């Protein structure tokens, strides 16, 4: 039976039979692969946490007739473990994993998508930037690699040099006055600058951005993604956005300060803010959060 | 494909969790050849379970009345609630005989990729139970995988400011195994959750 070995990031897992899982991974050299992890749901499985989403593994499989089977997996990075300890980073990371799943094809190598996802997960786990910004940067760049690079400066239709005020999804981004289709939006210039910075990886500009522009940018980045993907990305609906102005320390850090399995407090003295808490506030898409 | 009712049976069986088309076929032909009395017993068990068993209005566990056996038992400790994903987890913990409190069944774990968010779980019902002030400890026993961990983080975030003692079941080395086979995350958790040895 032919064996192969690759470095890969776990995108998602689905239950199979009694104790197995189908594991979808994005691999460095072979693109997306779907393999069977035998017995991984048993508490004594030798794979342990290695085949959980957002883990990077050195993977060895043997080829089967329909699905390949994992024979060995060694951890290269356990980002998933860190990200799940904070609900905000968990939802943002899940949206990245689902997007990667949707933008790649089985057995079609995509080293760029692989490296982009690895970098984004690492950055989110290290907590150096607001997870919402890391997610939006990831979405824009993943789209660009897929061939749908949005324009945030020059005209997406004729190439006329920007900045332009009008923005149109179908046209591919900012449009000049003569190309502007009716019904184009007019986002704040700062929002367009933020999105351009996220696409280019200019974190100095991105980190310094204001909340209202981040919020508007998120709307545009996700709209772009949903426009290009037939069925939307499901996880995006549940992504929690943090308000970095609520607490100077809050925009940072998934793993660092958070205690074991505890996540962050719901804000000092704020009381319970869970969803559907009787007679309490609903969860807003942009949760105000402070570190416990 | 088979004729009419046989194919209908195969289709119905194939909709059960963990049953693929091949298994569905095998079960269907097993039933065709089985003693009619055996099949009738199976049918009545299925009908009865749907008629009699419902979900406990307090904790969401399976129950034959309005309350499950555990919620109805006045000897159970009402100050501690163990939060689990599924009714089968209640059974697993009950087998240990370690826990004398009550349970709360969420009905799953938060899984954005499957479209399951906090509002789809029985979190609101948990909050209602906490309103009386009788409960002082919450033990979060969701599965030790990514979704279970994230669900625990979510719950802890608003349970802790309520002044409750919130604990999470320890993750660590399986009893009876060798240390060298443990993966890094499991071994790391075992370190975090290490305990003092009493002299
Ligand atoms: Zn133009
Ligand atoms: Zn009950």
Automatic annotation (TrEMBL), chain A:
InterPro entries for this protein: ARFGAP/RecO, DNA_rep/recomb_RecO_N, NA-bd_OB-fold, RecO, RecO_C
Entry keyword annotation includes Protease: no
Protein name (record): DNA repair protein RecO
Keywords: DNA damage, DNA recombination, DNA repair
Keyword Nucleotide-binding: no
Disordered: annotated segments: 243-292
Entry similarity comment: Belongs to the RecO family.
Its biological purpose: Involved in DNA repair and RecF pathway recombination.
Domain of life: Bacteria
Composition skew (Gly residues), residue ranges: 250-274
GO CC term (a single one): bacterial nucleoid
Signal peptide positions on this chain: none
GO biological process, one term: DNA recombination
Protein source organism: Pedococcus cremeus
Pfam families tied to this protein: RecO_C, RecO_N
Automatic annotation (TrEMBL), chain B:
A Gene Ontology BP annotation from the UniProt entry: DNA recombination
Keywords: DNA damage, DNA recombination, DNA repair, Metal-binding, Zinc, Zinc-finger
Origin superkingdom: Bacteria
GO molecular function, one term: DNA binding
Segments forming domain Toprim: 79-174
Stored SMART domains: TOPRIM
Coiled coil: none
Zinc finger (C4-type): 56-71
InterPro entries: DNA_Rcmb_RecR (IPR000093), Rcmb_RecR (IPR023627), Rcmb_RecR_Znf (IPR015967), TOPRIM_dom (IPR006171), TOPRIM_RecR (IPR034137)
PANTHER family, sorted: RECOMBINATION PROTEIN RECR
Job description of the protein: May play a role in DNA repair. It seems to be involved in an RecBC-independent recombinational process of DNA repair. It may act with RecF and RecO.
Family under the similarity heading: Belongs to the RecR family.
Record's protein name: Recombination protein RecR
Protein encoded by which gene: recR
